[in-house]
Write a structure and sequence with these properties.
The complex is a heterodimer of chains A (215) and B (127). With 215 residues, chain A is mainly alpha-helical. Chain A is built from nine helices and no strands. In chain A, α4 (65-74) packs across α5. The longest helix of chain A is centred in the last third of the chain and has 33 residues, at 177-209. Helices cover 6% and strands 46% of the residues of chain B. Chain B has one helix at 2-9, and strands spanning 19-26, 34-44, 47-57, 62-66, 77-79, 84-86, 93-94, 100-102, 111-112, 114-117, 120-126. Chain B has a four-stranded antiparallel β-sheet with strand order 2-3-4-9, with no helix packed on it. A four-stranded antiparallel β-sheet of chain B has the order 5-6-7-8, with no helix packed on it. Chain B has a three-stranded antiparallel β-sheet with strand order 1-11-10, with no helix packed on it. Classes of the chains: A mainly alpha (215), B mainly beta (127). Chain A binds chain B through residues 49, 53, 56, 75-79, 82, and chain B through 1, 4-5, 7-10, 12, 14.
């Protein structure tokens, strides 16, 4: 096996450009809590993959969204598994990303010169919340509908701009099919795009500045 | 991974539904005028299923209606004093021809094919 990969690498030359990226020195005092960011990123990849699969069968329309969810759960092969997988990965993504934030805070890794990376990380956290919020509406059942009703109503309490903000989020005065399509687009197009850009920046900065050591 | 993806993405073969005509009642038991309620038992995948349906005689034709409300599938009842089919769940109402007259149902009642052969009446179900 080693010979095979050796031969493949001699011809393809994939190891060398990745050496600088993968073989880096790590400071003293690093422990398992430093894995949380990596776990979160792994979960992001799993979410991305299972989301790509769900997108094949999900129909973002007022009349068919819920029916398509039932179809995924009951008729599509492994559909129930992929949907649960997406759901639980999303939950764990939230948990690990917040624990990672706590770890960074406790180890004072947000301080100069890493303040820009803290900002990038905060934006990723906000995007993760937004992704969870928009994804919650997509099953288009009672729980999804009323959760979004409550969530978007909160925007209404913003001074002066509140009502406009709420209408903007809903794509109208009430939660309708327009809201569903809007949330779907945000969930599967906008957020993954900006998330990828921010994650790239996040990792680039880690590479640039190195890992902050123990306390 | 690729195997799981292909297994998931490849369209599953749908079980084709077939028309099944089940005995509903004797021709003599059909309504002469107005609406009559029936229950039938028929086998479905090894179980016995009871179905409730209505047959309406409009004095021009005989129509069989499924009793499932087209809103969310509750079983409707025929209300003789109001001359309407009424759904107990969300107030859906249909007239004698199955058209929606009130409430949330998005479509008229589903009609079932009705066949009278000799002395017996059969209704068609898709199972």
């Amino acid at each position: 096996m080693k010979n095979f990969f050796g031969w493949l690498d001699r011809n393809f030359g994939i190891k060398k450009p990745h050496r600088r990226f993968l073989y880096r020195s790590i400071p003293e005092g690093v422990n398992y809590f430093f894995c949380l960011g990596g776990i979160a990123f792994t979960l992001f990849i799993l979410l991305f993959a299972s989301g790509l699969m769900l997108a094949i069968y999900y129909v973002p329309s007022e009349n068919e969204a819920f029916a398509s969810i039932l179809r995924i759960d009951n008729e599509v092969r492994l559909g129930w598994f992929i949907r649960s997988f997406h759901k639980w990965s999303a939950n764990l993504f939230m948990v690990t990303i917040m624990l990672h934030t706590v770890r960074v805070f406790v180890y004072k890794a947000y301080r100069h010169p890493r303040e820009l990376n803290w900002i990038a990380g905060s934006l990723i956290l906000i995007l993760a919340f937004a992704s969870g919020f928009t994804g919650y509406l997509l099953p288009w059942d009672q729980k999804a509908y009323w959760a979004t009703e409550v969530g978007t109503s909160m925007a209404r309490t913003v001074p002066v701009l509140g009502p406009y903000l709420c209408d903007f989020l809903r794509g109208g005065e009430d939660i309708t099919g327009a809201t569903l399509v809007r949330f779907y687009a945000i969930h599967v197009l906008y957020i993954p795009l900006f998330m990828c850009l921010l994650l790239w920046a996040h990792f680039h900065l880690v590479k640039q500045q190195g890992v902050k050591g123990g306390l | 991974m690729a195997g799981v993806y292909l297994f998931f993405a490849f369209p599953g073969r749908k079980r084709k539904k077939k028309d099944l005509y089940v005995y509903a009642c004797d021709a003599a038991e059909l309504p002469v005028q107005g609406v009559r309620r029936y229950y039938i038992d028929y086998p479905l995948r090894g179980k016995t299923v009871t179905k409730k349906f209505f047959i309406v005689n409009t004095s021009k034709e005989l129509i069989a209606f499924s009793s499932g409300c087209t809103h969310l599938g509750c079983l409707i009842n025929w209300n003789r004093t109001e001359n309407k089919f009424m759904c107990p769940c969300h107030g859906g109402q249909y007239d004698m021809l199955g058209n929606v007259v009130a409430g949330p149902p998005p479509a008229p009642l589903n009609r079932l094919p009705l066949k009278i052969e000799g002395e017996k009446a059969y209704i068609g179900l898709r199972v």
